[in-house]
Amino acid sequence: MLADLWPLYRLALVTPRLELRLPREDELAALAVLAGRGVHPPGERPFLTPWTDGGPEDRARSVLRGHWQRLAAWDEAAWALGLGVFRRGSGEPIGLVAAWASDFAVVREVATWSWLGLEFHSRGYGTEARAALLTLAFDHLGASAALSAVFRDNHASQAVSRKLGYAHDGITVDARDGEALVSDRLRLTADRWRTVDHPAVTVTGLAACRSWFGL
């Protein structure tokens, strides 16, 4: 089985409404098509990397390339875990979330990003999916902090971060479409995480791949 050679395929994070796991090829294709239909309203650009530029096929292929690149480049010293987000019961794909880290065994910090298909916005799925990633990071991998950098005009991501307890940790300045744009740098500590209400999350399949995270 593929999971015997690549045990990350056994890892699953289950919340009251969602299941997060590595997508199989047909599921990956469905996620790519979903991204092609749109992950944010027209006229917005909530991501620094302009992967949502171009037409539906360009966006879909960018999802495929990104997923394959994360798998191929995996290393315990510098890993990026990208998980498909599926609705429980139906298995309907609704988006993708990722956590990544460098020298995690020493630094104990992760960063995250995510996108949801436009039709699944404003239902609380983004908060639930990020809470699942944070549960994995803090409660099962022993992270000391989770980081995020969010454009100030990305109101949805800002709201999710506030709800989950992130605190302001400075700013970064990047070039976006020819102008300097300020992002808020946010940090959530393990101690703060333990005081925040969040959905219950069940993590399975981690034992077989703990060493893949440098543990």
Automatic annotation (TrEMBL):
Pfam families referenced in this protein's UniProt entry, alphabetically: Acetyltransf_3
Record domain N-acetyltransferase: where: 17-166
UniProt xrefs under InterPro entries: Acyl_CoA_acyltransferase (IPR016181), GNAT_dom (IPR000182), Ribosomal_N-acetyltransferase (IPR051908)
Domain of life: Bacteria
PANTHER family: RIBOSOMAL-PROTEIN-SERINE ACETYLTRANSFERASE
Protein name: RimJ/RimL family protein N-acetyltransferase
Organism: Catenuloplanes nepalensis
Highest classification ranks of the organism: Bacteria, Bacillati, Actinomycetota, Actinomycetes, Micromonosporales
